[in-house]
Amino acid sequence: NAGVTQTPKFRILKIGQSMTLQCTQDMNHNYMYWYRQDPGMGLKLIYYSVGAGITDKGEVPNGYNVSRSTTEDFPLRLELAAPSQTSVYFCASSYFTDRGYLNTGELFFGEGSRLTVL
Amino acid sequence: KNEVEQSPQNLTAQEGEFITINCSYSVGISALHWLQQHPGGGIVSLFMLSSGKKKHGRLIATINIQEKHSSLHITASHPRDSAVYICAVRGTYKYIFGTGTRLKVLA
């Protein structure tokens, strides 16, 4: 199993450009998340999805958009890139069930995408 | 005040030393996670626990729900343990992350 796959690993953007960070998981997880990691800060939630067709904002959604058309894919779109979006982005997935199984909720991360906006 | 606080922020140890990293939180949780991030690398899950203690190799994680505190111990530390260790707490399906403890183990 590949787990959570993110692309690209590195990208440099000019101010005002747009791009999409791709995220795919092959574990049939229902929950997927996008986080950004800034120096000295904990991971901050940008957007999350509880299943195909359902997405919601996290703590820092401004300047980003997501979609979840399939269980596997959860792309993050950056519109009109700004220097404040320079960060490392992580996609993650997890499985939750309302049956309360003890093993649910383990978090699996992609390798991260380092984005620089100049 | 952050909802998840880790200490210390930075830690340097000699190979073979016993290491403890602490995590305190101020919110109700259903589980606590310990994660490891190598320099320039991805993040991997080490432990998920909601009570008591778990052990995996040289790593031990404990949690005290009443005191809202968890510790990650590394026995017989090795340079390959050098990484950032992140504590995260989970309510229902959202996670709150600490800022991490940067560990360097010297040979």
Care to describe what's here?
The complex is a heterodimer of chains A (118) and B (107). Chain A is mostly beta strands and 118 residues long. Chain A has no helices and eleven strands. The N and C termini of chain A lie far apart (36 Å). The mean pLDDT of chain A is 92. Helix content of chain B is 0%, strand content 60%. Chain B has no helices and eleven strands. In chain B, strand 9 and strand 10 (95-97) form a beta hairpin. The radius of gyration of chain B is 13 Å and the shape is globular. Chain B starts with a strand and ends with a strand. The model of chain B has no long low-confidence stretch (mean pLDDT 94). The interface between A and B is medium-sized, with 24 and 25 residues.
Largest interface: A-B, 24 and 25 residues
Report the C-alpha radius of gyration of chain A, rounded.
14 Å
What shape does the CA trace of chain A take? globular
Tell me what portion of residues of chain B adopts beta-strand conformation: over 45%
Q: Could you describe the largest sheet of chain A, including whether it forms a barrel?
A: 7 strands, mixed
Residue stretches of chain A low in confidence (pLDDT < 50, at least 5 long) are: none
Task: Summarize this entry quickly.
Helix content of chain A is 0%, strand content 47%. Chain A has strands at 4-7, 10-13, 19-25, 31-37, 44-51, 54-57, 64-66, 76-78, 87-94, 108-109, 113-117. The N and C termini of chain B lie far apart (36 Å).
